[in-house]
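>> received
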Amino acid sequence: MDNHEANTSKLNALTREGSFHSVTLDTDKCQGCTHCLKHCPTNAIRVRAGKARILSDRCIDCGECIRVCPHHAKKAVYDLLADFSEQFKWYVAIPAPSLYGQFSNIDDVDYVLTALKRVGFDDVFEVSRAAEVISDFTRKFMEANKNLKKPIISSACPAIVRLIRVRFPELCDNVLTVTPPIDLAAIMARAEAEKKTGYKPEEIGVFFISPCPAKVTETKAPVDGLKNEVNGVIAISEIYIRMFVEMKKIKEPEPLSKSGIVGIGWASSGGESAALLRDRYLAADGITHCIKVLEEIENNKLNEVDFVELNACTPGCIGGALTVENPFVAKARIQTLRKYLPVSKNTYSEDNETMKNIYTGVQLKPSNALSLSSDVNEAMRMLKTIDELLEKFPGIDCGACGAPTCRALAEDIVLNHARESDCTFVLRQIMAGMFSAFTDITADSPTLNE
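>> returned
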């Protein structure tokens, strides 16, 4: 079985099980080191029996473990266009704006879009078009609803949305409940293709070209069961080489681009916020910085801010784990491309049938991944035990026990997933006590002394 077949088999199995995560572990390559352990923002990784293990209910598919694993044991699964051969009569690619920053020496987005058509798609529809619609809707929505819980947190980054569900459940009400740009782009693309071709909706395949595993997961297993509008998700890294080859052959690109500075600006941190034309906003990128911002919001220290844009990747989607270019080089390319574009080409309209359901009204629900027990009294007992265990541990969070922190080990112990002796310092004390007891016994035993 080749890599493509193995990827497809894994993807289908995970989807069938209903527990899909794009980020997966190759146990054959895993060496049991603690690099991933230290960088996971939700403490979703343990090392047991010399191998890493990803806790499904805590994983947010941010891709941090993929970036830091020196043995390439963490990887993302995604769709392949070949998997959908002859399933549809019309194939539409909806590329993320971050795709444009992956190629050098281009001054026109149409080269990228034309290349997409040449690698197997019948048409393209830019996600940046949908992003411009959402920016316009959000601006009008915030103006019309002055009593929204502030600060409003963007729902554009699925890794951040899942992070909030797991680590910051009290902030779920702050998350903006709008259709993600990917899904809106899929809806608009399919409607446009119906008019153009006359095909039925089920005969039109829509494929997202993704920069990160979190977006793969979001399309396969949407938060709170929202309807998935995308038929498949293909990694930028998967399709890059074929596009690069085709792009060299293009002498005159097709005039396909229908978005402007606002939409393409969503590729990097701050683009979404700037499009709102408001001064009271905050934009942060990188999972560590985003966590610090969320902690500030949780502690009511950012009440002067109206809108918060957070991107798990640095410096935004162009830094996703499924991209190929240095993210800062890609950001510079995006900035260059924007110089030749109008401000925006797409606006929200209540009369447009495909736009009328942008506001979902589906409130984000907290996850119980970090809860110790559904019974309050039992949870309190466990918390007390955790505090007692922490008194025994050194508090240096070395990771040698296979848990990321001493507290995580204590939680694992009360949940019967680990033992006190997993801590090397506790084990050393136990061994020292046993050696001391053995020494005392031998000293008092005439038979042994002889």
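>> The radius of gyration is 25 Å.
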